[in-house]
Amino acid sequence: MAQQRRMGGQPMFIMSEDSQRTQGRDAQSSNIMAGKAVAEAVRTTLGPRGMDKMLVDSGGEVVITNDGATILNEMDIEHPAAQMIVEVADSQEEEVGDGTTTAAVVAGNLLGEAEDLIEQDVHATTIVEGYHEASEIALEAIAEQVNEDGVDDDVLKQVAESSMTGKGTGGLTAASLAETVVEAIRHVETDAAVARDNVAVHTQVGASSNATELVPGIVFDEEPAHDGMPAEVEDASIAVLDVELGVRTGEIDAEYAIDSIDQLNTAIGAEESEVRGYAETVAESGADVVITTDDVDDRVSSFLASEGILLFENIGSSDAKDVVSATGATRVGALDDLEESDFGEADRVRSANYGDDDLAFIEGGAAAETVTVFVRGGTEHVVDELERAIGDALDVVATALDSGEVVPGAGATEIAIADKIRQEAAGIEGRKQLAVTAFADALDIVPRTLAANTGQDPIDALVDLRSAHESEGRAGLITDGEDVTIDDPLEYGVVDPADVKREAVESATEAATMIVRIDDVIAAE
């Protein structure tokens, strides 16, 4: 239907007839419903007993995961309000690497509470103001929950283990993987900060997840350019080239007439001379490992193999960049410019075969400034989920080490936040107090969901948690095998980086308030 306004008694059309417009409560209800639906889709994945989701795309590709960000990104979500919840998870993942499910679930519950307030004729602006005030109180509560003992390796392992518990880790326990994760992050710690980008994760199907290991260097998919090349080079001098090592060809097609055998032999001789020149230049440079992003003539490869030089050709630009970053090499675009000062260094470069795949390892020396968690697993689904779990653990350990702040997990921090908000709400006048209290109620979704996912009654568990918090000062829902108890999470090593909680509160509040303020949706078709 075309939208129109009357001027001087005449209708004036200002919108296309194909446009659709939803206003007022209908618009708010539609947006809130969409946001809640998305949050509900990931709610059951929360916690150590969270369930997995199987996502199948139109091409039949299957993803099995309980990672909130992965689930939301794999879902085919079109509703714009629902997309905002996806953006909450994306923001959480980008900033701190974990807590995506918590952020999405809290955002959805904030919308649910806002819907109830709107039904009570509380204005959207009042809700927004109350939510923002409550979020400030929440940040204060998080600061009060920070563990005063600081962060050491034991705490970092607890952070990593808490992050991975309940996720797919194959045959490995979260505790054993946590040691690898902490070792990797400690390896790239600097005086200024943690160089998180210097930790890579490389997956390889074909063995038990128990074969997962930390490689002091980088790993990429490639095989030597010639079978006769050494499989391993010690104390390697590495040249990284953007050069084609073969007969130069012009961009214009051309034909040459050869009238005699002598002319043919001369042409072949010139070509052989050019190719051998490339090979000799590389060999004389002193490099014993050569990596190039371009093609290499088989004759060059054969000559270099006879000289004991290990060559990898057609390397992707990103892999070449990683080699440069790890080894200190300089990428060279012309063979005549290659000098010893351009070489990178590594203790060892080796090639290894894993079933149908060949991998190159550059280890030790300068390359050891970058480390790779080499993930193994029996199936593609196992290694994919293991990669996601380790990636999240690396992120949260780096976050915890950078900030030096951790808070109790297992729902204890959310219980503490909600309690403080309810106390502060008593001093807030007017209807805004309802919104502040609703914010506290929304945070209850975290311990309630943790309880439901462990088979407990959510209401009874929430009552017991609040009571234990008031009497003990700290109470979470601890899952130990089949047993579920209410106790101090710090005593069980269940901890999260404080920044994960802060980011979840801030991003969930931002998304929820943005959606609540929308009272007019105009969609073109």
Give the tags.
525 residues; alpha+beta; GROEL, domain 1; GroEL; 2 domains; seven-stranded mixed sheet; three-stranded mixed sheet; 16 helices; 20 strands; 48% helix; 19% strand
In a nutshell, what does this entry contain?
With 525 residues, this protein is of the alpha+beta class. 48% of the residues lie in helices and 19% in strands.
Overview of the molecule:
The chain is of the alpha+beta class and 525 residues long. It folds into 2 domains: 21-147 and 407-522, Orthogonal Bundle (GROEL, domain 1); 217-367, 3-Layer(bba) Sandwich (GroEL). Helix content is 48%, strand content 19%. It contains 16 helices and 20 strands. It has helices at residues 24-43, 68-74, 80-96, 100-119, 124-145, 153-164, 174-187, 261-285, 298-306, 317-327, 380-403, 412-425, 432-443, 445-453, 458-472, 498-516; strands at 4-7, 10-13, 20-23, 53-56, 62-65, 199-205, 213-215, 217-221, 232-241, 289-292, 310-312, 331-332, 344-354, 357-363, 371-377, 406-408, 476-480, 483-487, 495-497, 520-523. The strands form 7 sheets. Strands 8, 9, 10, 11, 12, 13 and 14 form a 7-stranded mixed β-sheet that branches. Strands 6-15-7 form a 3-stranded mixed β-sheet, covered by helices on one side. Helix 8 links the parallel strand 9 (232-241) and strand 10. The chain is elongated, with a radius of gyration of 30 Å.
- Return the CATH architecture of the largest domain: Orthogonal Bundle
Q: Could you give the count of β-strands? A: 20
In CATH, what is the class of the largest domain? Mainly Alpha
Per the CATH scheme, the topology name of the largest domain is GROEL, domain 1
Number of helices: 16
Instruction: Compute the number of structural domains.
Output: 2
Measured as a percent range, the helix fraction is 40-55%
Q: What is the radius of gyration?
A: 30 Å
> How would you sum up the major sheet?
7 strands, mixed
**Which stretches are low in confidence, meaning pLDDT under 50 for 5 or more residues running?**
250-254
Mean pLDDT: 81
Distance between the termini: 11 Å
